[in-house]
Amino acid sequence: MSEARIVYLNGAFLPFDEAKVSVMDRGFLFADGIYEVSAVLDGRLVDNAAHLARLDRSLGEIGIRNPHTIEGWVGLQEELVRHNGLTEGLVYMQVTRGAFERDFAFPPAETPPTVMMFTQAKTVANNPLAERGAKVVTVPDIRWKRRDIKSVALLAQVLAKQEAAKAGVAEAWMVEDGFVTEGSSSTAFMVAGDAIVTRPLSTALLPGITRLAVMRLAGDEGLRVEERLFTVEEAVAADEAFYTSASAFVMPVVAIDGRPVGTGEPGPRARRLRDLYLELARA
Ligand code: PDD
After folding, report:
1. How far is the CA of 110 from the centre of ligand 1 (A)?
2. pLDDT of 105-150, one tens digit each?
3. Parent domain of 245
4. 107 and 164, same domain (yes or no)
5. Which atom number of ligand 1 is nearest to the Cα of residue 50?
6. pTM greater than 0.90 (yes/no)
7. 205-252 residue pLDDT tens
8. Can you tell me the distance from the alpha carbon of 135 to that of 130, in angstroms, rounded to the nearest whole number?
9. Which atom of ligand 1 is nearest to the CA of 51?
10. Which of 154, 245, 274 for mutating ligand 1's site (highest number of atoms within 8 Å of CB)?
């Protein structure tokens, strides 16, 4: 943890060590909150309007009033990026239902939400993993039924990512009823011939912002975009696989559960889509 960082908390830009939240915060007690992650490249936020729109939707779905307008959010994010001199990395945003004496039902409507943002410096563009390609393991998807909401209740994803870490790989793909739902913090894709395949949106997965951008880029490239369920076996037998997220962009997958995908090297389509996404992100 870099102590030099400046954190945004409830209206103030504070030194890292001074940004403190109540033990009665409902985010801490109940995971009663929403988060978002936007990438920063060349000092600029990537596809940020879509992330803020999803933040607004997530808040609405659990009945927390969005404390800021879109313009308000952007102003705060840009100020935070400036305070931290961030050129490449991530902005993390979190809103919880605020601090109140512990009780499951909502606190009084006038309870202010807790609004917090921090930055993380990170190499997102020239990520060496994208050159090597990522390996993934599969785990059962043990999450709740509203995965379309970007909730801070991430225990299932924490456990999934730990399975990946134990196996020495980058990501875990979660599987339900025999089909891949998504990665622990990314959207799963496979490539079959001239088609990229990814799961259709539903309450079973997060509507990935990078997912949508990559689907559009693939269409522009003359690839077919198939939104359908796929199994682990199909993905292993596919020509290529990859995953997308605000932090990984487009990440080629070279092995699933120790079995090589395609040639066992990053595939040409995944590489091309990564390059196109980087171009778009920088545009
Ligand atoms: N995670 N699915 C899940 C479960 C995720 O947590 C994420 C992103 C995605 C990809 O969504 P997007 O393309 O909008 O980033 C899919 C972020 C990066 C995180 O939790 O850090």
Report:
1. 31
2. 999 999 999 999 999 999 999 999 999 999 999 999 999 999 999 9
3. 128-282
4. no
5. 14
6. yes
7. 999 999 999 999 999 999 999 999 999 999 999 999 999 999 999 999
8. 11
9. 14
10. 245
